[in-house]
Amino acid sequence: MTVAMVGLLAxxxxxxxxxxxxxxxxxxxxxAFHARLVPALDDLIDELxxxxxxxxxxxxxxTVLLEDYLRARPDxxxxxxxxxxxxxxxxxxxxxxxxxxxxxxxxxxxxxxxGAADADRWGGRSDVLYSPDAFGHxxxxxxxxxxxxxxxxxxxxxxxxxxxxxxxxxxxxxPDGREVLVWHLPPAGYGIGAGLRSAADVxxxxxxxxxxxxxxxxxxxxxxxxxxxxxHAPPAQLGRLRDLLAELDPGNAFRxxxxxxxxxxxxxxxxxxxxxxxxxxxxxxxxxxxVHGTRAPLKRRNSQLELLMERSAEPLAALARRxxxxxxxxxxxxxxxxxxxxQFHDVMAGCVSDPVAESIAARHLEVESIAAEVVRGSLHDLxxxxxxxxxxxxxxxxPSLVLWNPAARPREGVLIADVTFFRRDVLVGPPTGRTPRxxxxxxxxxxxxxxxxxxxxxxxxxxxxxxxxLDDVTRVRVAIHAPPVPGxxxxxxxxxxxRSIEPREAVSIRGRTIANALVEVTIEGNGSLALHDxxxxxxxxxxxxxxxxxxxxxxxxxxxARGSRSGRAGPATVRRVAxxxxxxxxxxxxxxxxxxxxxxxxxxxxxxxxxxxLHAGSPIVRCIFHVDNDAVNHRLRARLPTGLDDVAATAGSxxxxxxxxPVIVDTSMGGFLETPVRTAPAHRFVAxxxxxxxxxxxxxxxxxYEWTPAGDxxxxxxxxxxxxxxxxxxxRPGHAAWPCATPLAQCLGQSRVDLALAPVGRPDxxxxxxxxHLWEDAFLPVRGFWLRDAVALEPxxxxxxxxxxxxxxxxxxxxxxxxPLVLRCYNATGRKTAGVWRFPESVHSxxxxxxxxxxxxxxxxxxxxxxxxxxxxPYEVVTMLIT
Length: 883
Prior knowledge:
By secondary structure, the protein is of the alpha+beta class. It folds into four domains: 3-287, 7-stranded beta/alpha barrel (Alpha-Beta Barrel), CATH 3.20.110.10; 387-505 and 782-787, Immunoglobulin-like (Sandwich); 546-570 and 591-608 and 628-664 and 673-779, Golgi alpha-mannosidase II, domain 4 (Beta-galactosidase, Chain A, domain 5), CATH 2.70.98; 800-883, Immunoglobulin-like. The strands form nine sheets. Strands 21, 22, 23, 24, 25, 26, 27, 28, 29, 30, 31, 32, 33 and 34 form a 14-stranded antiparallel sheet that branches. A five-stranded mixed sheet has the order 4-5-7-6-10. The longest helix is centred in the middle third of the chain and has 30 residues, at 354-383.
């Protein structure tokens, strides 16, 4: 006898969950939806006050909606606090309902930290990780929930439709073994009960169908009924609706409930096991994995800002405060809030109208500006640089280069920095008779370094108590061999030092080939690369050749265009950019026939400029593509043949990696609501290897790739599409959104794409930390900050280093409260690992906490307080508070 049959005998208990799903911005801009949110919440407050039976309302699992409402209605904050404290208004735990596969793992943590702080301030947080509309979910999701003290969750897309997925309750196990009890929304999703109204004639028609769908999947006698949908005002007279349902269906019971009350009722229910990422629900509901290539420049910009915040602004602010500097947490909070508000699932996926995309670009600029000021001020604190005092001691200026190592391990090697030399004052304001000062620029300065580029520029030196000092300068891009810099440490060097430019393993150019002692890379005739791993003898060819194919889809779904072809318009030209010995680079240019002409022609064109760079002593081949797209309705991708068939690809993901085999689908079997895609999301890297032959593709953050059965990687450079939603796609019949034109999603004009390649072996892929270390060396190198107005700098005793095989640095940040420093790493392997954090001086105390910085447990210090030892279980996330 099935659970449903038992329920029919004993009676089910239906929990009415009143809610709204509120996309803060989507096919309309945020201001329009904000104007609709205010009256909707006005009505909700009035309804909750007037009807005691209206016990609770779920505000979509995100606190930002209350923040938005109170900006317009601060007079109702007291009423809202009372509703939250009594559980009648359920807030959070998210700050926003973000896409869960495109943002970084740390961005998801910041999202939940802000949501928890806001909910606590207003009266309390919902303890259900509510994810009703994300386009799939990462494997770390259960672990993330437990790191915030949450043991229940709700999901929809990415799960369902397979033989073993027939029930509504699952125990989803994270990589570290911890579980979350998950209720899976029905095929209609969170809107299944939107048609239920407090009118008997409506219920007689609507309720039987809703009930039958829910009971067919019920694993317990308790079943939630979600009543609400996209941007719906709160359902009226919820108590009356409950009573009418009870009259209509007397064999079952009906309650107006909070979501956590439902989960408490089913907590001990046996549930189907579940593990891994959730990205496959093609026979159940739309999975919409095609969004990972949409508006790719917007996604790359988001990754750039995440990297700036996570690995520069936050750690520098935390270390500067530890060294006695200013507390910059309010600015970090402001920047994170702005960035996370840009990570709504529709926004981050790129399936939004053009006005929304334009507003996101403006907000990204705000985030970058705040983060850059945090970095600048924190570095000044760390080296005791006072721009105001320096302005009064111009004769004492000793221009210096401040080196910052954002990795938690000592590093040296090639560093590229921009330095400036004074030429002439630029006077601003009415004429006063003041004579501008003049200097030699770089002409009279001996620079014992490799010069990569130089030219005239203007530089503004800012100080808080003086007007800006604007100067004409000579800007020189130099490469130096940086001295050893401790992990997360700061060092100061002067260009006047006697610095040799001859490295032990120099890099050189011969024709179209760049080589050092580790690798050789050659520009082939069509602009693709041939790579030779000197250490193993393995060779690869045809790497990063660009291909275009017609795209007849929309922002949600790629769909191939009939008869589309791809071809080069001409051979590649190659020019030497840098000749070594520290840095060697070649520039290649070519044109590509692609899609349709942006101005009505049958064929469009893409102009490509790619700079390929190799550093002395490094196996990493760095590539910067400058793509000028003048074609519409096409998908542009870079192919990397590896010669590795029958091998799984290892892709970076939030707090770890995931192995994936090529997607091979036989659509003739039928049952698909949407054609499964062959592409997949990745963070930072994707690699494949067998024994000593292998290749890693590295990127600054998120990207979309395909892994083919033949062993080729395909990296999505951009998708050029012109419609938010279409209803004529055989690969996804029906509109996924309210249709509108999206000409900006054609990605016309110039885009920059940073990539890197490195030969690897199977041990590198399995080690857990080798690929993250390659990624750090490619995109988080030791960085140089030039201080032309430096006076007697005194670097603080900085440096925090992480040791332990398979351990990967994730965060260094100021704590949410109090004075501690937060350190986070994760074990990227399936084996228990011993780790240690080392400090240059004694620390007072160390506590192990969850990612929400709660549940503190003290740890014994060693080495007179200079070391903290710990164990990390397989795939465990380890967070510590250091005072």
